[in-house]
């Protein structure tokens, strides 16, 4: 064997001995997205905004509501939406429910189509409601089982955390505890939940399936602050053209709406399954 042959063999052996970096993990079949983005995209296809339209009286004067987003919901069939009972009622006279798909809201904003909805069933005891939305044609969410999530697991939710806007947003949390609230089985979540998230799906990061319905957040105004906010003073004040009492009342209202303490609650899937079985 010549010196050249020996040198080539040594070089080849050295190259083969080098560590080759592993290939990156494969994305789920049929998807070009990383795993979390894939799960979020699936959940978003099932998530909707729940809104009110109609006419109400404010300060003695009629006010027209046009698709004002008040909460979230999730499609459990192409034309059926699950949400919280307190999100959709009780309705004031001349006010109706409308629903829009989150995917359309994200793409079209205010130009998205809102579909008229009607209540099929409303269970105030368990805070669940089912809506009929003809023409919605949303992708139904995959419903999980109680074994899909436990304390310490990562979860996420998509909804409308700010009732001032309509853009859907992602929220993440950890299941902090399993609790009973007024007899209902709920999850306590270590994650920021806001008023507009109520009615939206809680999704397991492990399975990508629905494991609960967001229905409450921790935190609010004390009784004294609520009393002040709701009291109409008999004396009018003006500082620089502004009524300081009116400004403070508006500030308190905004604080209560958007106060975040990092704790939320969700109705567990153990309550959701029987409710859907009873109304289908």
In short:
The protein has six helices and twelve strands. It has 280 residues and is α+β, with helices and mostly antiparallel strands.
Please tag this protein with its features.
280 residues; alpha+beta; 6 helices; 35% strand
Task: Describe the structure in your own words.
By secondary structure, the protein is α+β, with helices and mostly antiparallel strands. The protein has 6 helices and 12 strands. The protein has helices at residues 3-17, 35-44, 102-108, 223-230, 244-258, 269-279; strands at 47-58, 61-77, 80-83, 95-101, 115-123, 128-132, 154-159, 169-181, 184-190, 201-204, 210-217, 263-268. It has a 6-stranded antiparallel β-barrel with strand order 1-2-3-6-5-4. A hairpin with a 2-residue loop joins strand 2 and strand 3 (80-83). Helix 4 (223-230) crosses helix 5. It is globular, with a radius of gyration of 25 Å. The chain starts with a helix and ends with a helix.
Q: Which SSEs are present, and which pair or pack?
A:
Blueprint: H1 3-17, H2 35-44, E1 47-58, E2 61-77, E3 80-83, E4 95-101, H3 102-108, E5 115-123, E6 128-132, E7 154-159, E8 169-181, E9 184-190, E10 201-204, E11 210-217, H4 223-230, H5 244-258, E12 263-268, H6 269-279
Helix-strand pattern, N to C?
HHEEEEHEEEEEEEHHEH
The helical percent reads: 10-25%
Largest sheet: 6 strands, antiparallel, barrel
The portion of residues forming beta strands comes to 35-45%
């Amino acid at each position: 064997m010549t010196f050249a042959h020996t040198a080539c063999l040594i070089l080849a052996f050295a190259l083969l001995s080098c560590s080759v970096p592993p290939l990156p993990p494969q994305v789920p079949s049929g998807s070009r997205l990383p795993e979390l983005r894939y799960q979020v995209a699936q959940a978003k296809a099932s998530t909707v905004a729940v809104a009110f339209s109609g006419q109400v009286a404010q300060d003695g004067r009629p006010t027209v509501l046009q698709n004002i987003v008040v909460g979230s919901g999730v499609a459990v069939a192409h034309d059926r939406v699950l949400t919280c009972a307190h999100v959709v009622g009780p309705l004031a006279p001349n006010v109706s429910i409308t629903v829009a798909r989150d995917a359309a809201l994200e793409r079209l904003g205010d130009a998205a189509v809102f579909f008229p909805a009607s209540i099929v069933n409303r269970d105030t005891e368990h805070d669940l409601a089912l809506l009929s939305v003809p023409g919605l044609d949303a992708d139904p969410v995959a419903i999980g089982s109680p074994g899909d999530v436990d304390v310490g697991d990562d979860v996420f939710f998509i909804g409308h955390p700010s009732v001032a806007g309509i853009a859907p947003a992602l929220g993440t949390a950890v299941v902090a505890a399993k609790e009973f609230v007024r007899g209902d089985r709920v999850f306590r979540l270590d994650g920021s939940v806001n008023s507009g998230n109520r009615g939206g799906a809680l999704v397991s990061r492990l399975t990508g399936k629905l494991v609960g319905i967001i229905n409450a957040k921790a935190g609010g105004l004390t009784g004294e602050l609520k009393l002040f906010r709701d009291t109409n003073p008999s004396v009018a004040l003006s500082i620089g053209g502004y009524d300081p009492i009116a400004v403070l009342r508006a500030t308190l209202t905004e604080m209560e709406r958007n106060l975040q303490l990092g704790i939320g609650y969700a109705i567990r899937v153990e309550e959701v399954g029987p409710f859907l079985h009873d109304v289908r």
